[in-house]
Write a structure and sequence with these properties.
It comes from [Clostridium] hylemonae DSM 15053. The chain is of the alpha+beta class. It is built from four helices and four strands, in the order ββββαααα. 39% of the residues lie in helices and 23% in strands.
Length: 174
């Protein structure tokens, strides 16, 4: 875990939402762009560095797409992530159902098995619906319902374009 301050700029101007203080970065988490963490390896508290990054041409924020950014980083602290020891006492603080490590292991196993079962059922249902749709011919669809669905899709994608600060036609082409 690395605690950093950072400030990013492009074309000499600060990038909106491109700075932070006391940001706790788990190295390898991918919370920044791919490869960002690699630049921090080997640095210690107090080190400052400048990282250059070029945004992809198809980057979702069109104002930054294809631009070169400069990121000033100050490493404030480097810590090893400490995981608590798995004890009965710890289990009682994290579980409402278990009091011992053994009970907790059974609880987690049951939860994982249930989640896996739900996932498999969902995949089977998706597969079945896919086959139904592939082998179905719609002869008539209520016009008012069709119009409703069209508007819903349009609104959804228009919101997406706004969120990424893109023109609507450009957003649809990506």
């Amino acid at each position: 875990v690395v605690i950093i301050d950072y400030a990013a700029s492009a074309d000499g101007q600060p990038i909106q939402n491109g700075s932070g203080s006391d940001y706790e970065l788990t190295v390898g988490s991918g919370s920044f762009y791919e490869g960002f963490d690699d630049n921090l390896i080997g640095h210690n508290a107090g080190d400052t560095l400048n990282i250059e990054h070029t945004f992809a041409d198809d980057f979702n924020n069109k104002t930054l797409a294809g631009k070169k950014a400069s990121i000033d980083v100050t490493v404030k602290a480097v810590r090893e992530k400490e995981l608590p020891e798995l004890t009965d006492e710890f289990v009682r603080t994290i579980s409402q159902k278990s009091d011992t490590v053994e009970e907790y292991r059974k609880e987690v196993r049951k939860l994982l098995e249930e989640n896996n079962k739900e996932y498999i059922q969902s995949e089977l249902m998706d597969s079945a619906w896919k086959q139904v749709l592939e082998n179905t011919e719609v002869k008539k669809y209520p016009k008012d319902r069709l119009k409703e669905e069209e508007q819903s899709f349009y609104d959804h994608y228009e919101d997406g374009a706004d969120m990424y600060e893109m023109d609507f036609p450009e957003f649809l082409s990506k």
